[in-house]
Write a structure and sequence with these properties.
The chain is of the alpha+beta class. It has helices at about 20-40, 45, 60-75, 140-150, 160-165, 215-225, 290-305, and strands at about 5-10, 80-85, 90, 100-110, 115, 120-125, 130-135, 175, 190-195, 200-210, 230-235, 245-250, 265-270, 275-285. The chain has seven helices and 14 strands.
Length: about 300
């Protein structure tokens, strides 16, 4: 899953020290160098164009390189299309609390076709410009839609382990016991279950019970909003009224996955009183629907008796 961050909807505007044309030229130059490094699998070269807080840990380099290679194999070498400077206060928040000198929109060229716009942030670090933030062009809309849709379906007495389906269907193999995701506040009970499909795809479900409905609601909203900066579409979840769903970029942390091209991750979050369930289906291709995550959501609701 890609690294995700909050969206900047207000603040962090330009300081007027450089012109929009200069900012656009700077962003274009950094992006061209960055994209060339991604095309060639040069992890160090790509990271040198990022601010330090946005550089991936060395231990993740092999995974990042493998996903970049899969991206290029599937789509061919990426090119850079138009770059534009955004109005003040629009675009992703820079990593590490750094101050943006400018925000910009850019479109990639994939097989000679322009992709939908993505957004980025520039910062000055040690006297040099750096790329320091990323989001899809529709992230703000997706974020607002998610925040307004989540609703509590009502409590359930079903244990968190029993809320989880036994299998997502044919073609999956059960994974060994998954490492619990660390949460704050700490849940009073939690259970995780995962399955793999093929070499990369799979499904994961995490169920949590918190000490209060307030804690569960806050965590459900955080789960729902976490991937918003990488979001490409909100998913309707009629099988579980009040639940929220999102499709987001699986390789978003590479920062140059074309927003209309897979692989994608589908996620649904369900709030049931003091319990929260998070369902994710990964490695979905460009042309795919949401039936897998919706079927799992329906099974969770059935098990909850709600």
């Amino acid at each position: 899953m890609g690294l995700v961050g909050a969206l900047l909807l207000l603040g962090c505007g330009r300081d007027g020290s450089t012109s929009a044309a200069s900012d656009g030229s700077t962003a274009e130059g950094l992006l061209r160098t960055y994209i060339a490094a991604v095309n060639s699998g040069d992890v160090a070269g790509a990271m040198s164009q990022r601010c330090r807080p946005a550089q991936i840990p060395e231990a993740d380099g092999a995974l990042w390189s493998d996903q970049a290679k899969r991206l290029i194999t599937a789509n061919g070498p990426l090119g850079l299309g138009p770059v534009r400077v955004l109005p003040a206060g629009q675009g992703p928040i820079p990593r590490g609390g750094l101050r943006a000198t400018a925000h910009f929109g850019f479109r990639l060229l994939v097989g000679g076709v322009l992709s939908p716009e993505a957004l980025g942030a520039l910062v000055d670090e040690d006297g040099r410009p750096r790329l320091c933030g990323y989001s899809t062009g529709v992230a703000g809309v997706v974020h607002d839609e998610l925040a307004g849709q989540l609703a509590d379906r009502g409590g359930t007495s079903t244990s968190v382990a029993d809320l989880l389906p036994d299998s997502p269907g044919a073609g999956y193999r059960r994974l060994p016991e998954l490492e619990p995701r660390t949460r704050a506040p700490v849940p009073v009970a939690q259970a995780s279950r995962g399955w793999q499909r093929g070499d990369h795809g799979g499904s994961r479900l995490d169920a949590y019970r918190f000490s209060s409905r307030t804690e569960a609601a806050a965590e459900a909203l955080r789960f729902a909003e976490d991937p918003a900066s990488d979001g490409v579409e909100r998913i309707e979840v009629p099988e579980a009224g009040g639940a929220v769903g999102i499709r987001f970029l699986a390789f978003a942390w590479i920062w140059v996955q074309p927003p209309a091209r897979g692989p994608f991750i589908d996620q649904v979050v369900i709030l049931m009183g003091d319990a929260t369930v998070v369902i994710a289906v990964s490695d979905l291709p460009t042309v795919s629907d949401h039936h897998e995550v919706l079927a799992l959501a329906a099974d969770v609701v059935r098990r909850a008796g709600s």
